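Title: Comparing notes on inverse folding

I've been comparing how different people in this forum approach sequence design from structure. To keep things fair, I'm posting one structure and asking everyone to reply with a full sequence. Here's the target:
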């Protein structure tokens, strides 16, 4: 009860913040018609989409503009995740986030370069105070791109509460986006539940939804479920396959709001106004993960499972029905987008007469991992610790402890919290520093303690064993030849190949002086933009080190020539 009240208070605080800030008229982050490739709160693998994706006409290099007066508060440059990302703090405790950028202008670019030189690392993250780098509303300060884990050029744009760092729905803040299309319902699913809202295996039915001139409907407007979907202390619930569409885009988007009601009484509600980042992985609790696992289709649950802390539910009703054999209930499900384009379906859910289900047969602690329990497995050469609330719902307990080939659960079952792994190195002829923990045959970031125990954390179940990496990375020039004695290109590119683990360090040395070397992880490229150098022989050296400390040094000697480059300066757009 206390948790419910706290979530309600947090939700009301976030809503009031959205209403206050939404009164401000913001400058658009791009000066092209704003078209969405993805919206806020979309259901993604292991996370919600925490912002919106603006299309950039399929190309990089579009100017980005400050939405309001403010200052650059945080910068992060990485080959992963958001890539090159800028955080700008504004009045009213709002922060705008520009991710996957390609490059920056003026003082901002100079500060980033200085931080990279100080740390001798392309990857940097730093914070600035409120007076170091001011931006005016409409000021051009960066360019759109495709950096980090982006799969195509676009601007990933976020708004956050500066104090709580909760992500806010940008579409609630007045940006001019045309949307006249209502959500579309394609299927619904009825599931049998335990008292805590856990799905009972093999107790679900899928029903197609049809669209006609009058809207959406199901056959005969009645859903019949077997009597064994009923129990003394369990219940039933529904989930819906429903997607939204936006003018000018072929992309499928997530819904903003949904209601499940009966004869005017609201049984469940979701609203995508705000999501805390440390709650994002609870998307695996909100969506019907069982259906996603089977078919890759995304169903929004119209009910709330125990231990789900998401603040996207503005009311306390959790949507769990308690039909008994012979009972029926009239239901309405409505989904709408931010522009209040709405879609609804009316139907009757009926439980047939017969024998109820006996819940005692499900989810015994001896056969299943239970969410509100922790687990510890230990042998002479390994230890595994699973913290409480690692699991969203009970999953089958499948453990094999034959060292070094361990198995922990089913790879397909999602988990919320990291599981701690420790394996002892027994490979005498291979140094422990050349070994790492593999989970499902993939590298997992590994450390080695003083007693040669390998330590790692994983958010994936499945096969666990030890891998070996003694092979250094391979570096190959792409846009020039090693035999060239004169280089006229400003930008040089190398292909980097790393087999077993991952790169942890990469550097460019020119005449033994350090320069920035960019790593584009998607294509495994190293990219260098040459500085102004004298027209004479120079020595270029690229050094790459992987997670197991395997090192490669690539060297070229010759003449460098290039014309001077005129630097751009920031501009303000009124």
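Reply #1:
Here's my take.
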């Amino acid at each position: 009860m206390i948790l419910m009240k706290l979530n309600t208070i947090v939700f009301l605080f976030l809503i009031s913040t959205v209403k206050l800030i939404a009164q401000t008229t913001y400058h658009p982050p791009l000066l092209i018609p704003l078209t969405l490739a993805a919206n806020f709160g979309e259901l993604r693998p292991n996370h919600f989409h925490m912002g919106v994706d603006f299309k950039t006409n399929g190309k990089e290099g579009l100017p980005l503009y400050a939405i309001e007066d403010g200052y650059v508060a945080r910068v992060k440059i990485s080959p992963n995740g958001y890539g090159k990302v800028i955080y700008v703090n504004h009045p009213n405790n709002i922060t705008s986030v520009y991710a996957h950028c390609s490059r920056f202008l003026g003082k901002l670019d100079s500060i980033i370069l200085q931080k990279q030189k100080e740390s001798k690392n392309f990857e940097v993250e730093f914070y600035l105070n409120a007076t170091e780098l001011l931006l005016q509303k409409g000021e051009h300060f960066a360019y759109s791109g495709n950096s980090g884990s982006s799969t195509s050029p676009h601007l990933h744009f976020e708004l956050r509460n500066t104090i709580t760092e909760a992500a806010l729905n940008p579409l609630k803040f007045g940006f001019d986006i045309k949307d006249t299309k209502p959500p579309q319902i394609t299927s619904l699913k009825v599931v049998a539940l335990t008292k805590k809202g856990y799905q009972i295996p093999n107790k679900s039915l899928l029903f197609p939804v049809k669209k006609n001139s009058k809207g959406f409907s199901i056959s005969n407007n009645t859903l019949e479920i077997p009597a064994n979907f009923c129990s003394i202390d369990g219940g039933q619930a529904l989930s819906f396959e429903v997607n939204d569409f936006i003018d000018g885009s072929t992309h499928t988007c997530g819904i903003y709001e949904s209601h499940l009601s009966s004869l005017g009484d609201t049984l469940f509600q979701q609203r995508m106004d705000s999501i805390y980042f440390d709650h994002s992985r609870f998307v695996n609790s909100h969506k019907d993960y069982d259906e996603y696992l089977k078919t890759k289709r995304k169903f929004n649950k119209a009910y709330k499972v125990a231990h789900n802390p998401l603040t996207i539910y503005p009311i306390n009703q959790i949507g769990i029905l308690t039909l008994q054999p012979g009972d029926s209930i009239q239901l309405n499900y409505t989904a709408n987008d931010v522009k209040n384009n709405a879609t609804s379906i009316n139907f009757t859910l009926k439980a047939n007469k017969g024998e109820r289900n006996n819940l005692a047969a499900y989810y015994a602690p001896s056969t299943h991992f239970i969410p509100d329990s922790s687990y510890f497995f230990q042998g002479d050469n390994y230890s595994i610790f699973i913290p409480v609330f690692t699991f969203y719902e009970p999953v089958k307990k499948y453990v094999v402890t034959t060292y070094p080939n361990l198995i922990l659960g089913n790879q397909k079952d999602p988990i919320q919290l990291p599981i701690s792994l420790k394996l002892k190195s027994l490979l005498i002829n291979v140094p422990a520093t050349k070994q790492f923990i593999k989970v499902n045959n993939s590298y997992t970031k590994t450390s080695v303690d003083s007693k040669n125990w390998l330590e790692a954390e994983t958010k994936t179940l499945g096969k666990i064993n030890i891998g070996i990496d003694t092979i250094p990375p391979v570096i190959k020039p792409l846009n020039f030849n090693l035999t060239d004695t004169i280089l006229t290109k400003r930008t040089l590119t190398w292909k980097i190949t790393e087999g077993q683990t991952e790169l942890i360090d990469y550097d460019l040395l020119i005449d033994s002086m350090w320069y920035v070397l960019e790593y584009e992880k998607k294509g495994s490229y190293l990219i260098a933009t040459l500085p102004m150098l004298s027209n004479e022989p120079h020595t270029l050296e690229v050094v790459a080190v992987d997670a197991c400390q395997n090192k490669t040094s690539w060297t070229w000697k010759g003449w460098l020539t290039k014309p001077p480059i005129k630097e751009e300066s920031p501009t303000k757009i009124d």
